[in-house]
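Example 3.2
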Amino acid sequence: MRTAAVVGTGLIGTSVALALAGKGVRVHLMDVDESAARTAAALGAGTVGPPPAPVDMALLAVPPAGVGEVLAVQQAGRLAHSYMDVASVKAGPERDACALAEPSTYIGGHPMAGRELSGPLAATATLFEGRSWVLTPTAATTTATLNRALEVVALCGAVPVVMDSAAHDRAVALVSHTPHVVAALMAARLQHLPDDAARLAGQGLRDVIRIAGGDANLWRDILDANAAAVADVLSELARDLSVAVTALRGLATDNADERAEGMMHVADLLSRGIKGRGRVPGKHGGTPRNGVPVRVLIGDQPGELARLLGTVAELGVNVEEVAIDHAPADRSGLVELLVGPASSVRLAQRLADHGWTVHQTPPVAPGTPEPALSAPETVIRGS
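Structure, written as tokens:
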């Protein structure tokens, strides 16, 4: 692939453009908001404006409801030899594409990656590395278009997954769209959070509500496009919530039978939650990995996190996840590095040797819950 166009320079479109440009592809950036396209170009994502001749592939990073119309317009202008949208729902855009445009040069796509931030300034060339990228070819999609889409996925470092569009929409309703609604519902409970309660908020709450910070207009469009499938999942969740409420009410009474039944339902819910969590693949699409948190105290001055991660990289230790617990009233933060059990002790000691104050949590047996921030720790203070 030598040339590409990206129509829509938000988070996903600009991230695709950055990844392709970084692999030597000439990328042309187009957006109704030209300032967004200029921002993406300033980041190194490509050049602003349409190409002089049809490109190999055009990426349509537009809302789901606009895919068919944008595809038809760009096909009429001979923007590209093949077209792929990156909307987070697929059945509706596919129907519109087949009705309004030429379906043979079109393929649906959905990179399973994102951030709670939006816009080109939030984009990164590594956003898709190791992530699944769904492709939903139609019966009319040509082999050449499928191959170009597969090349885009490979250049972005993602893993292709071919699915039927309706099956995709049912799947993302469960693994992506409903979680956003639940995060928003939980975050909405915090609008009038008292100051004393806010001081108690820890990483668990931040994990639950993190994605609730996503662009409201974007998510309105997503939920509108996949409303029925999300409603089905929420209905199932509502039934579980009703059982949980009844069970907890029972635990709050003095009636022994109600307490016993309530405890049974609560235990069942927690057990099913553990099993469900175990179904989610870990980093790079593999099975969930057991990690040990190594927590490092850092100052609030600029560059401290980068300096810590640079030290870890120099030590050659693979970090599965990074989380930061920062108290607004404090001028320090606790960075949690999730590493393999075999690496945790060595990393903790070597970070201490480099002057960091480390809170090391003892390794846990496979299958047991991860330690909370309040779990017993060994504090190793750097010199």
